[in-house]
Amino acid sequence: MTSIIKLAQGSKYVGGTFILSIGLLGQMCWLMMIVDSFCGWP
Q1: Fewer Cβ within 10 Å of end Cβ, the chain: N or C?
Q2: Residues 33, 35, 39, 42: is their CA dihedral positive or negative?
Q3: Could you give the residue ranges of the DSSP H alpha helices within 1-42?
């Protein structure tokens, strides 16, 4: 029973880090787009 709970916590942790990394990637893309529009690079 405890192994199932541990597994659930582990998957939740993995999912959280996955969402967090996607969020960070999205922010990086937004920053790149903003810098791009300011600098006017092709």
Answers
A1: C
A2: negative
A3: 2-39
